[in-house]
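Appendix B, Record 12. Input sequence as logged:
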Amino acid sequence: MKVNVHAVNFTVDGKLVDFIQERMDKLEKYYDKVVSSDVFLKVEKTSDKENKIVEIKVHVPGDDFMVKKQCKTFEEAVEQSAEALERLLVKRKEKIRTHI
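Logged structural output:
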């Protein structure tokens, strides 16, 4: 799957990009028609510890799924977003299966 990582107002290191790519590749076992995904990483300037925001947009034929999570670390936010996307993709796959 093609994963585009966009870091807003900072530079992202290679380890984080590899982690995101690896985690997004796992989504294909839940729904194999995923075309690509865009991952937006943002740091909010607040006094809160949970200031890392991850938005993931997944493109599938006929639809797009968008998930946004805010956590202490980017890894945690990516993990939570991926879990939410897993549920969405499984739900979509079951919906398509019932229409066939």
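The radius of gyration is 14 Å.
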